[in-house]
Amino acid sequence: MVLLRDGMCPGLDEGLVRGLRAADIKTVEDLVSSDMEELAQRCSVSYKALFAIRRVLLAQHAAFPVSGADLYEELLSSTAILSTGNPSLDKLLDSGLYTGEITELSGGPGSGKSQVCFGVAVHISHQLKQNVIYVDTTGGLTAGRLLQMLQAETSNAEEQMEALQRIRVFRLFDVFSLLDCLYGLCGGGLQRASVGGGSVKAVIVDSVSAVIAPLLGGKQNEGMSLMSQVAGVLKTMAKDFNVAALPLLIKEEFDLKWWSRSKEEGGGAAAAASGKRKRDETDS
Amino acid sequence: SEMTSQRRRREEEEVRAEMSESGAQLFARLEARRCLKDIEPRLFPGDGGPQHGEVVELYGSEGTGKTELLYHLLCRCVLPNAAGGLEADVVFVDTDYSLDMLRLVSIMESRLNSWMRENNEEACRSCLSRLLVVHCSSSSQLLLTLHFLENSFSSRPGLALLLIDSISAFYWPDRCEGGANLAKQEEKLSKCSELLGRLLRDYRITVFATCHAIRRSYSGPSSSSFSDPDRPYLCRAWQRLVIHRLLCSRQEAGNNMAATAGRRQVLTVHCTSSSSSGTKAHRSSSFYVTDGGVEFT
Fold first, then answer.
1. Which residue among A185, A264, A265, B1 has the highest number of C-beta atoms inside a 10 angstrom radius?
2. How many Å apart are CA A164 and CA A125, to the nearest integer?
3. A260: helix, strand or coil
4. What is the pLDDT, as a whole number, of residue B52?
């Protein structure tokens, strides 16, 4: 919902905003849905002026339709496929992680999801020389473990340090900080995090369930709504900034019956937003 | 003074004339849009299919083929007549970023391939130019976008189909925003539905919309675990628009015809079409998803 404010567009001055508010028109949506003639009379303003304001506001706030041909061209030129560093995993993912898409990893505890993500982060930062954002909500990421994995790739200390510098870690433990962080990334944070000549190519969220699970179940709607929001901002980030987003989720049958039931409710919303999924098996 | 007020009135009349429909626009609006009754007869009962101004809802949980069906219908519309298409323009409203252009193009190419061997790229591009895509990130933006799209409908008489994937994307955020008041929770989608109803009447387009299933269990621990999972849960204003309801689901493994389908997952669609007299017609069909898109069994 967008509130009408003076100066939003030419012709929308303070007097008119007050007049509209008196006519119960407070938001852009209210204005666009109203009868222009009737409103012009009530607010003693010319029909032409009001119609022009409506047209400008609509153009500013509605989503703009794009031709399928242009969209496809843009996608072809901007989509990249990132190898995960593990050939069999790459095969499972149809060559690797696609930028502009969400790849969800779900599995029970101890099935190796985080380890897979550490490996992906290390591979992208060291081999592909691109940047990675790692959002850690469980406290499971340690620089020592990343260094250990890098030491297996190269013995050159300088290269190891360079690679570590390309992995930017955010530690947060509740969903509001997560949303804050993700919105911040969309609003310029991704460009700021691009160091050493590369750009951010992957955003890993380990894990989404850790911050959402406490809010699910019972009669609360907030948990589902927040999960939709997280999914939405991850998708927007993936598409608009050309990154591969990797959220991690805990598999359903692991927990108590009541928790799994609410998880199923939530599963629809999250899974509906994700592109490809990979089920972790402990022996993969 | 007399002169300035006269001049102002004349100016307003001019602007009003310019803003009201021109003859060409009126023609474009009233001229019959391509009827999509024959878009996919295998899905609808009898010789039925959606008439002008009708809404088809595809309802099902994730992984039941709803978006794949939309790709199938989309291709059917934009492909040239010679390749089995209807040469109609389509608008795709994407609310949860589920449109996979790479997948869509690969389906389109495989259908064009079975018609003409070479020069696929050019043909593909011309088909894609019949498609308009728009992303919405909230129900407020959906409302504004539908208003904005009115311009597209009036200026493109070839636009016959509106696809919405999905209409349920903002259900939880709207519920949360509406607090405890059910009317407030449903307000935004109701407004979108009412606007859509007017656009359907004025422009006679056809709408297919997907709706994700949710499982609700509010009644407490003592009652049965799941209420009927296929019961519609969106606001009444939307339910009133829906004429045909396609329930999509995964077929149980035991019923698979092992010989043909092999390990492929068979998906079923059950269609319920309401007529104006209140009677309902039914039809079931099944399909599986191949590299080249949906294939009916």
1. A185
2. 7
3. helix
4. 87
